[in-house]
Amino acid sequence: MKIVFYGSGNMASAIFRGMLDNKIVSPEEIYLTSKDNKERVEALHDELNVNYSYDDEELCRDTDYLVLASKPQNFPDVADRIRPYLEPKTKIVSIMAGTQIKTISRELKLDNPVARIMPNTNAQVQHSVNGITYSSNFTAKDELIEIMESFGKAVEIEEIEMHAITAATGSGSAFLYYIYEKYAECVMELGFTEEQAMFLTRNLVIGTGKMISDSDESFSELRRKITSKQGTTEAGLLALDETNIKENLMATLQAAHDRSEELAKE
Ligand SMILES: NC(=O)C1=CN([C@@H]2O[C@H](COP(=O)(O)OP(=O)(O)OC[C@H]3O[C@@H](n4cnc5c(N)ncnc54)[C@H](OP(=O)(O)O)[C@@H]3O)[C@@H](O)[C@H]2O)C=CC1
Ligand SMILES: O=C(O)[C@@H]1CCC=N1
What we know:
alpha/beta, Rossmann fold, ProC C-terminal domain-like fold, 2 domains, 12 helices, 52% helix, elongated, binds NADPH dihydro-nicotinamide-adenine-dinucleotide phosphate, binds (2S)-3,4-dihydro-2H-pyrrole-2-carboxylic acid
């Protein structure tokens, strides 16, 4: 199998690192390219033994999957590179936020099968959430899902739902990391050093993650087991609720959702 990544940045590298760690593909099957950051691509080649090239004819020759992994605003330039060489057999997989299937087909001026996926960087540890939606002529769904499941969970959705999943899980990890950042700052304000606060917060997050992973109990159940009647946790949760945390998180997700809709129009 030949999988070519047009874009070797944060998201693409999380995906192919996850795929290689899972061994669903060999390094020889992966080809990378970028715009002009050749140092990064060469470093990935040196580290992972994947192929790299800036020869679009070579990159597009006999390619099974071509992954559009640039920022949406750079897609027109990517399309200019691949349009002359794209073969009918090649299936397009886009990870670009917002960019619609019809936009991809229109820009490429070709009717190759197109799938859009919305992953997140948890792909690097094979635990991405991958929203997937397809063009009507995309027939290799089972094969693509098998590839997706090498670095996470596959969630088949309608294209209109991509805005919501982009907000919820595509960007979601960043929202949680931000909450952890602020939590660690608060732990420092309780009197701990920055090093202590980071140690406490990192291990709190890792531990709760393991609890979620090992348990089939709901978040509420897990929370209730910590909340002693009239204790410290109950006092903290009452104060937390008064900060309108639900409204604040909803505003966060809505803003990301709305930006995805804007990108779809560009
Ligand atoms: N980061 C994330 O968590 C997620 C990102 N995405 C989507 O993934 C895409 C990439 O995001 P991200 O990885 O964060 O961005 P990065 O900036 O880290 O990577 C962008 C990559 O695209 C390359 N590129 C730009 N123009 C071209 C071109 N003309 N030809 C070939 N390669 C090109 C860049 O090359 P160079 O370095 O040379 O400029 C770079 O390798 C975006 O569309 C984003 O919406 C989706 C889900 C999650
Ligand atoms: O921030 C972005 O636009 C990309 C898409 C989802 C996560 N990162």
